[in-house]
Amino acid sequence: MPHTATAPSAVLPALPAPSAQAERLIELGVHDIAGLAADEIRDFAARAGSDGSLLAVHPDRAPASTLAPLLRRDGKPGFVVVDMADVDAFTPYAVELPDAALYFVSGVDRGDHLANWSPDEALPALTAEHRTPLVLTEGIHWILQQPQALERNRCFMTIGSRLRKADGTFDARTPAVWISNGTGRDGRERRNAPKVGWCWWNNRHTWLGFASAAGRG
Question: Is residue 172 part of a domain?
């Protein structure tokens, strides 16, 4: 059984208003990455947005490899670890994304209460809570809009993304977003930078929760 405290996730500031989130994505050039006009994002946010929801671009239009470098912490850009060059091959798992370029994610939570659980243990717990795990791009979108969602010792996995191998089984890696210590292949210059990496599906980490959502649409 998982051995963890049952404290709830830390309370974070409210997400920016949908219109402000749209402008943030446009400022970062995400509309160009996704092949969308700036006004398409603005119009969608105005029409479909609700306070407290996260605006996301479908990973087919804006993959993780293009979004991670847009993250910033201490003035340093985000990056994907060198041994995850196949990051964009990780596709939705245990979650169904809307069939649309843009959508909103409601009730995002960092899953601090599941720290020190393995992904294999956390997924059924989230399901029992009527929640679904975030995919990696949703986790990155969250930090783009709310940098405070990424804290030392309170980072998160995004187990809604997995890599299916040619034989139909799943790669044992699972994506996560945390803060680099500037060690090893990360390089000293990346200390404190936002980092997209991976953990093993059956391993536990005291400093990683499991980001999840209440709904999408």
Answer: yes
